[in-house]
Protein backbone atom coordinates (compact mmCIF):
# COMPACT_ATOMS: atom_id res chain seq x y z
CA UNK A 1 0.00 0.00 0.00
CA UNK A 2 1.53 3.32 -1.08
CA UNK A 3 0.30 6.81 -0.33
CA UNK A 4 1.61 9.89 -2.12
CA UNK A 5 0.94 13.62 -1.99
CA UNK A 6 -1.92 14.76 -4.22
CA UNK A 7 0.36 16.94 -6.35
CA UNK A 8 2.63 14.00 -7.15
CA UNK A 9 -0.37 11.90 -8.11
CA UNK A 10 -1.59 14.61 -10.48
CA UNK A 11 1.81 14.66 -12.19
CA UNK A 12 1.73 10.92 -12.58
CA UNK A 13 -1.78 11.15 -14.04
CA UNK A 14 -0.74 12.82 -17.27
CA UNK A 15 -2.14 9.99 -19.36
CA UNK A 16 -5.11 9.43 -17.07
CA UNK A 17 -8.35 7.73 -18.02
CA UNK A 18 -6.72 5.04 -20.14
CA UNK A 19 -8.76 1.92 -20.81
CA UNK A 20 -9.54 0.52 -17.38
CA UNK A 21 -11.72 -2.47 -16.57
CA UNK A 22 -13.27 -3.26 -13.22
CA UNK A 23 -14.47 -6.41 -11.45
CA UNK A 24 -16.62 -5.92 -8.37
CA UNK A 25 -17.37 -8.71 -5.89
CA UNK A 26 -19.77 -7.54 -3.18
CA UNK A 27 -21.11 -9.50 -0.21
CA UNK A 28 -24.39 -7.97 0.95
CA UNK A 29 -25.49 -8.90 4.47
CA UNK A 30 -29.08 -9.05 5.77
CA UNK A 31 -28.45 -5.96 7.93
CA UNK A 32 -27.57 -3.92 4.83
CA UNK A 33 -23.79 -3.88 5.29
CA UNK A 34 -21.67 -4.47 2.18
CA UNK A 35 -18.15 -5.88 1.86
CA UNK A 36 -16.84 -4.55 -1.46
CA UNK A 37 -13.82 -5.84 -3.39
CA UNK A 38 -12.92 -3.99 -6.60
CA UNK A 39 -10.14 -5.20 -8.89
CA UNK A 40 -9.13 -2.68 -11.58
CA UNK A 41 -7.13 -3.82 -14.60
CA UNK A 42 -5.27 -1.45 -16.93
CA UNK A 43 -2.96 1.53 -16.68
CA UNK A 44 -4.12 5.03 -15.80
CA UNK A 45 -5.75 7.15 -13.10
CA UNK A 46 -9.34 6.85 -11.91
CA UNK A 47 -11.53 8.33 -9.20
CA UNK A 48 -13.40 5.66 -7.24
CA UNK A 49 -16.50 7.02 -5.46
CA UNK A 50 -16.79 5.79 -1.86
CA UNK A 51 -19.64 6.03 0.68
CA UNK A 52 -19.13 8.59 3.45
CA UNK A 53 -18.68 5.94 6.16
CA UNK A 54 -15.56 4.50 4.46
CA UNK A 55 -12.67 6.04 6.35
CA UNK A 56 -9.74 3.77 5.51
CA UNK A 57 -10.18 1.74 2.31
CA UNK A 58 -7.52 -0.88 1.63
CA UNK A 59 -5.80 0.04 -1.64
CA UNK A 60 -3.13 -2.29 -2.96
CA UNK A 61 -0.66 -2.22 -5.85
CA UNK A 62 -1.32 1.42 -6.78
CA UNK A 63 -0.57 5.01 -5.85
CA UNK A 64 -3.60 6.66 -4.28
CA UNK A 65 -4.90 9.72 -2.46
CA UNK A 66 -8.22 10.50 -0.78
CA UNK A 67 -10.49 12.71 -2.86
CA UNK A 68 -13.58 14.67 -1.85
CA UNK A 69 -15.93 11.90 -2.95
CA UNK A 70 -13.74 8.82 -2.58
CA UNK A 71 -10.22 7.83 -3.57
CA UNK A 72 -8.14 8.64 -6.64
CA UNK A 73 -6.04 5.69 -7.79
CA UNK A 74 -3.12 5.73 -10.22
CA UNK A 75 -2.22 2.31 -11.63
CA UNK A 76 1.25 1.86 -13.09
CA UNK A 77 2.74 -0.70 -15.44
CA UNK A 78 1.80 -3.59 -13.14
CA UNK A 79 -1.67 -3.09 -14.55
CA UNK A 80 -3.83 -4.12 -11.59
CA UNK A 81 -5.02 -2.68 -8.29
CA UNK A 82 -7.39 -3.92 -5.58
CA UNK A 83 -9.63 -1.70 -3.42
CA UNK A 84 -11.48 -3.24 -0.46
CA UNK A 85 -13.89 -1.57 1.96
CA UNK A 86 -16.96 -2.17 4.11
CA UNK A 87 -19.96 0.17 4.24
CA UNK A 88 -23.53 0.43 5.50
CA UNK A 89 -24.52 3.28 3.16
CA UNK A 90 -25.17 1.43 -0.10
CA UNK A 91 -28.56 0.29 1.18
CA UNK A 92 -31.73 1.98 2.42
CA UNK A 93 -34.90 0.47 3.84
CA UNK A 94 -38.55 1.40 3.81
CA UNK A 95 -40.70 -1.08 5.72
CA UNK A 96 -39.79 -4.55 4.49
CA UNK A 97 -38.43 -3.26 1.17
CA UNK A 98 -34.69 -2.72 0.67
CA UNK A 99 -32.97 -0.66 -2.01
CA UNK A 100 -29.33 -1.14 -3.05
CA UNK A 101 -27.63 1.59 -5.08
CA UNK A 102 -23.96 1.86 -5.96
CA UNK A 103 -22.22 4.50 -8.07
CA UNK A 104 -19.69 3.22 -10.57
CA UNK A 105 -16.66 5.11 -11.90
CA UNK A 106 -16.08 5.60 -15.65
CA UNK A 107 -14.69 2.30 -16.97
CA UNK A 108 -14.20 0.66 -20.32
CA UNK A 109 -16.13 -2.30 -18.92
CA UNK A 110 -17.25 -3.60 -15.53
CA UNK A 111 -18.52 -6.87 -14.10
CA UNK A 112 -20.42 -6.44 -10.84
CA UNK A 113 -21.43 -9.47 -8.77
CA UNK A 114 -23.53 -8.77 -5.65
CA UNK A 115 -24.08 -11.77 -3.37
CA UNK A 116 -27.28 -11.62 -1.29
CA UNK A 117 -28.61 -14.11 1.29
CA UNK A 118 -30.69 -17.03 0.03
CA UNK A 119 -33.83 -15.56 1.60
CA UNK A 120 -33.61 -12.39 -0.50
CA UNK A 121 -36.43 -11.93 -3.01
CA UNK A 122 -35.17 -9.68 -5.79
CA UNK A 123 -37.98 -7.53 -7.15
CA UNK A 124 -36.21 -5.26 -9.64
CA UNK A 125 -32.75 -4.39 -10.91
CA UNK A 126 -31.49 -1.50 -13.03
CA UNK A 127 -29.85 -1.97 -15.44
CA UNK A 128 -31.34 -5.48 -15.72
CA UNK A 129 -29.13 -8.03 -13.94
CA UNK A 130 -28.84 -11.78 -14.32
CA UNK A 131 -29.85 -13.70 -11.17
CA UNK A 132 -28.12 -16.94 -10.21
CA UNK A 133 -27.33 -19.10 -7.18
CA UNK A 134 -23.83 -19.57 -5.70
CA UNK A 135 -23.49 -21.69 -2.56
CA UNK A 136 -26.24 -20.60 -0.20
CA UNK A 137 -26.35 -17.10 -1.66
CA UNK A 138 -28.10 -15.58 -4.61
CA UNK A 139 -26.10 -13.29 -6.80
CA UNK A 140 -27.03 -10.42 -9.09
CA UNK A 141 -24.65 -10.07 -12.02
CA UNK A 142 -24.16 -7.00 -14.20
CA UNK A 143 -21.89 -6.98 -17.26
CA UNK A 144 -21.59 -3.36 -18.33
CA UNK A 145 -19.73 -1.84 -21.28
CA UNK A 146 -18.87 0.98 -21.27
CA UNK A 147 -19.55 2.52 -17.85
CA UNK A 148 -20.09 6.30 -17.85
CA UNK A 149 -20.71 7.65 -14.33
CA UNK A 150 -23.65 5.30 -13.91
CA UNK A 151 -25.08 3.35 -10.98
CA UNK A 152 -26.54 -0.08 -10.34
CA UNK A 153 -29.81 -0.36 -8.42
CA UNK A 154 -31.62 -3.34 -6.92
CA UNK A 155 -34.81 -3.55 -4.91
CA UNK A 156 -35.40 -6.61 -2.76
CA UNK A 157 -37.01 -7.97 0.40
CA UNK A 158 -36.53 -11.03 2.58
CA UNK A 159 -38.66 -14.14 2.78
CA UNK A 160 -38.46 -17.32 4.81
CA UNK A 161 -39.01 -19.46 1.71
CA UNK A 162 -36.29 -20.74 -0.58
CA UNK A 163 -35.34 -18.55 -3.54
CA UNK A 164 -37.23 -18.84 -6.78
CA UNK A 165 -35.42 -16.45 -9.10
CA UNK A 166 -33.48 -17.42 -12.21
CA UNK A 167 -31.48 -15.44 -14.73
CA UNK A 168 -33.16 -12.23 -15.86
CA UNK A 169 -35.66 -12.47 -12.99
CA UNK A 170 -37.71 -15.42 -14.35
CA UNK A 171 -39.32 -18.18 -12.27
CA UNK A 172 -38.81 -21.94 -12.25
CA UNK A 173 -40.19 -25.05 -10.64
CA UNK A 174 -38.40 -26.60 -7.68
CA UNK A 175 -36.98 -29.80 -9.15
CA UNK A 176 -35.21 -32.35 -6.92
CA UNK A 177 -31.72 -31.32 -7.99
CA UNK A 178 -32.43 -27.68 -7.18
CA UNK A 179 -33.97 -28.51 -3.78
CA UNK A 180 -30.96 -30.65 -2.84
CA UNK A 181 -28.59 -27.83 -3.83
CA UNK A 182 -30.48 -25.31 -1.70
CA UNK A 183 -30.66 -27.66 1.30
CA UNK A 184 -27.17 -29.15 1.20
CA UNK A 185 -25.16 -25.97 0.46
CA UNK A 186 -25.98 -24.31 3.82
CA UNK A 187 -25.27 -27.60 5.63
CA UNK A 188 -21.88 -27.86 3.94
CA UNK A 189 -20.99 -24.28 4.85
CA UNK A 190 -22.11 -24.82 8.45
CA UNK A 191 -20.11 -28.05 8.72
CA UNK A 192 -16.95 -26.35 7.43
CA UNK A 193 -17.39 -23.44 9.85
CA UNK A 194 -17.97 -25.71 12.87
CA UNK A 195 -15.00 -27.89 11.96
CA UNK A 196 -12.67 -24.91 11.55
CA UNK A 197 -13.85 -23.33 14.81
CA UNK A 198 -13.09 -26.56 16.66
CA UNK A 199 -9.63 -26.76 15.11
CA UNK A 200 -9.01 -23.19 16.20
CA UNK A 201 -10.09 -24.04 19.74
CA UNK A 202 -7.40 -26.74 19.72
CA UNK A 203 -4.83 -24.18 18.57
CA UNK A 204 -4.77 -25.32 14.93
CA UNK A 205 -5.36 -23.34 11.72
CA UNK A 206 -6.24 -19.69 11.21
CA UNK A 207 -8.92 -17.62 12.96
CA UNK A 208 -12.33 -18.09 11.33
CA UNK A 209 -13.77 -14.61 11.80
CA UNK A 210 -17.23 -13.39 10.84
CA UNK A 211 -15.81 -11.80 7.70
CA UNK A 212 -14.30 -15.11 6.53
CA UNK A 213 -17.56 -16.90 7.27
CA UNK A 214 -19.48 -14.41 5.09
CA UNK A 215 -17.10 -15.07 2.19
CA UNK A 216 -17.27 -18.86 2.68
CA UNK A 217 -21.04 -18.73 2.27
CA UNK A 218 -20.67 -17.32 -1.26
CA UNK A 219 -18.40 -20.11 -2.55
CA UNK A 220 -19.19 -23.19 -4.61
CA UNK A 221 -18.57 -26.64 -3.11
CA UNK A 222 -15.11 -27.05 -4.64
CA UNK A 223 -14.08 -23.48 -3.80
CA UNK A 224 -15.21 -23.94 -0.20
CA UNK A 225 -13.24 -27.21 0.04
CA UNK A 226 -10.08 -25.48 -1.21
CA UNK A 227 -10.36 -22.53 1.17
CA UNK A 228 -11.19 -24.76 4.15
CA UNK A 229 -8.13 -26.94 3.47
CA UNK A 230 -5.92 -23.84 3.24
CA UNK A 231 -7.36 -22.54 6.52
CA UNK A 232 -6.60 -25.90 8.15
CA UNK A 233 -3.00 -25.77 6.91
CA UNK A 234 -2.08 -22.31 8.20
CA UNK A 235 -3.02 -20.61 4.97
CA UNK A 236 -1.02 -22.48 2.31
CA UNK A 237 -0.38 -25.83 0.59
CA UNK A 238 1.52 -27.19 -2.39
CA UNK A 239 -0.84 -27.56 -5.33
CA UNK A 240 -0.20 -31.28 -5.81
CA UNK A 241 -0.95 -31.92 -2.12
CA UNK A 242 -4.09 -29.78 -2.37
CA UNK A 243 -5.26 -31.80 -5.39
CA UNK A 244 -4.62 -35.11 -3.62
CA UNK A 245 -6.18 -34.06 -0.31
CA UNK A 246 -9.26 -32.41 -1.80
CA UNK A 247 -9.99 -35.15 -4.33
CA UNK A 248 -11.02 -32.46 -6.85
CA UNK A 249 -10.26 -33.43 -10.50
CA UNK A 250 -7.39 -31.49 -12.04
CA UNK A 251 -9.53 -29.53 -14.52
CA UNK A 252 -12.11 -28.61 -11.87
CA UNK A 253 -9.34 -27.62 -9.47
CA UNK A 254 -7.78 -25.31 -12.06
CA UNK A 255 -11.14 -23.62 -12.67
CA UNK A 256 -11.83 -23.17 -8.94
CA UNK A 257 -8.34 -21.80 -8.28
CA UNK A 258 -8.78 -19.30 -11.13
CA UNK A 259 -12.12 -18.11 -9.70
CA UNK A 260 -10.66 -17.75 -6.20
CA UNK A 261 -7.67 -15.81 -7.58
CA UNK A 262 -9.99 -13.45 -9.44
CA UNK A 263 -11.81 -12.73 -6.19
CA UNK A 264 -8.49 -12.12 -4.38
CA UNK A 265 -9.12 -14.93 -1.90
CA UNK A 266 -6.01 -16.92 -2.86
CA UNK A 267 -2.80 -16.46 -4.81
CA UNK A 268 -0.83 -19.13 -6.64
CA UNK A 269 2.96 -18.83 -6.43
CA UNK A 270 4.38 -20.28 -9.65
CA UNK A 271 8.02 -19.50 -8.85
CA UNK A 272 8.89 -23.17 -8.39
CA UNK A 273 8.20 -26.39 -10.27
CA UNK A 274 5.54 -27.30 -7.71
CA UNK A 275 3.10 -24.39 -7.43
CA UNK A 276 2.15 -23.14 -3.96
CA UNK A 277 -1.41 -22.06 -3.18
CA UNK A 278 -1.99 -19.66 -0.30
CA UNK A 279 -4.67 -17.39 1.11
CA UNK A 280 -4.19 -13.69 0.41
CA UNK A 281 -3.35 -11.24 3.16
CA UNK A 282 -6.67 -9.52 2.48
CA UNK A 283 -8.69 -12.68 3.16
CA UNK A 284 -6.62 -13.56 6.23
CA UNK A 285 -7.21 -10.05 7.59
CA UNK A 286 -11.01 -10.36 7.45
Keyphrases for this structure?
286 residues; 7-stranded mixed beta sheet; globular; disordered N terminus; Immunoglobulin-like; alpha+beta; 4-stranded mixed beta sheet; Arc Repressor Mutant, subunit A
Outline of the structure:
With 286 residues, the protein is of the alpha+beta class. The chain has helices at residues 6-12, 176-201, 210-216, 221-232, 239-246, 250-262, 281-285, and strands at residues 2-3, 20-28, 34-42, 44-49, 58-60, 63-67, 70-75, 80-87, 91-94, 97-103, 109-117, 120-126, 130-134, 137-144, 151-158, 236-238, 266-269, 276-279.
Name of the top-level CATH class of the largest domain: Mainly Beta
Overall, the morphology is: globular
- Biggest β-sheet: strands ordered side by side in the sheet: 5-8-3-2-11-14-13
> What is the makeup of the main sheet?
7 strands, mixed
Strand content: 35-45%
**Mind telling me which CATH architecture of the largest domain this is?**
Sandwich
Structural class: alpha+beta
- Our count of domains comes out at 2
> Could you tell me the radius of gyration in angstroms?
20 Å
**Residues in helices, as a percent range:** 25-40%
Give the H and E element order: EHEEEEEEEEEEEEEEHHHEHHEEH
Secondary structure: number of strands: 18
What is the CATH topology descriptor of the largest domain?
A: Immunoglobulin-like
**How many helices?**
7
State mean pLDDT (0 to 100 scale).
77
Low-confidence stretches are 1-17, 161-184, 199-204
End-to-end span in angstroms?
17 Å
Amino acid sequence: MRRVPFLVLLLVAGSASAQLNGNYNIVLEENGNSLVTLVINGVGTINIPLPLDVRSPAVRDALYVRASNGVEVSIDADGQSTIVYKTALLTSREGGRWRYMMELPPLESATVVVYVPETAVIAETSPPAAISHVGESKSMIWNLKPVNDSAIVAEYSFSGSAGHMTEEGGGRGLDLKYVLAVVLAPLAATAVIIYLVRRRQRGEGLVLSGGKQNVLKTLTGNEMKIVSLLLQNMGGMQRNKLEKTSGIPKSSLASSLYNLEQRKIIRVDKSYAVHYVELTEWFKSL
